């Protein structure tokens, strides 16, 4: 049998925790013998080298039943062992040793595999927290800017409504002023032009002809208008602005009456 295999179980041997038979040279785990770890630790090197397994002891002449392997007698000074029957799957390690091995393996796993990964996860979480904090700051800034822009938009909307109302009022007033201004104006056409003409005197002469005399102080403005068609042979029209709409209406009525007389007269 190979020296690296226990003669009492199929498990591999640990040289520091094994015994070799002085006669057959078979090796055994200490746990596969009847020797306790306490007795094994107090055995000298000479006692370990002279140790005989139960199989070899059973082959000795039987003068008595002192060394019978089947009897569960106390361990003698020679540290007699009993061979495990039929290489049963006995454990060569105690429960405490197994627990210690498991603890050691778990410590190795934690130190070699889990600790670096946990450290990496912590770094990732720290980076994520930093990014999240920066993102929260950006969101807060966006919210603040949005609130300011909303306030400005409301202010601009109110100003726009105010300006629209003011513009509407101005347009109404301009329309009224334009109507009032037009109510004072009259356009006289087909009056021959003269370079040295006095349009106020011309209007006064016309008013005398139609029997609606107008004083010069009642004429606010008097001028010829530009032609729409510069090639037209017609003289430019005269725009006259009177002092009141009543005077304008009287001038128009007198003109209409005069034209009717000339037409039917």
Notes on the protein architecture:
The chain has helices at residues 37-42, 45-49, 54-58, 95-184, 199-209, 245-264, and strands at residues 18-20, 27-29, 185-188, 219-224, 238-242. A three-stranded antiparallel β-sheet has the order 3-5-4. Mean pLDDT is 82; it is low at 65-91. Strand 1 (18-20) and strand 2 form a beta hairpin. It is rod-shaped, with a radius of gyration of 66 Å. Helices cover 52% and strands 8% of the residues. It has six helices and five strands. The chain has 265 residues and is mainly α. It folds into three domains: 15-92, no CATH class; 94-179; 189-264, Alpha-Beta Plaits (2-Layer Sandwich).
How are helices and strands ordered from N to C?
A: EEHHHHEHEEH
> Largest beta sheet, briefly?
3 strands, antiparallel
Distance between the termini: 165 Å
Number of domains: 3
Question: Which range does the strand content fall in?
Answer: 5-15%
Q: Give unreliable regions as ranges.
A: 65-91
Shape: rod-shaped
Spatially, the strands of the biggest sheet line up as 3-5-4
Kindly state the mean pLDDT as a whole number? Answer: 82
Structural class: mainly alpha
Alpha-carbon Rg, integer? 66 Å
Tally of strands? 5
Pfam families: PHD
Coiled coil: 118-180
Protein name: (apollo) hypothetical protein
Domain PHD-type: 3-59
Write the layout of secondary structure elements.
Layout: E1 18-20, E2 27-29, H1 37-42, H2 45-49, H3 54-58, H4 95-184, E3 185-188, H5 199-209, E4 219-224, E5 238-242, H6 245-264
Antiparallel strand pairs: 1-2, 3-5, 4-5
Organism: Parnassius apollo
Coiled coil: 118-180
Domain PHD-type: 3-59
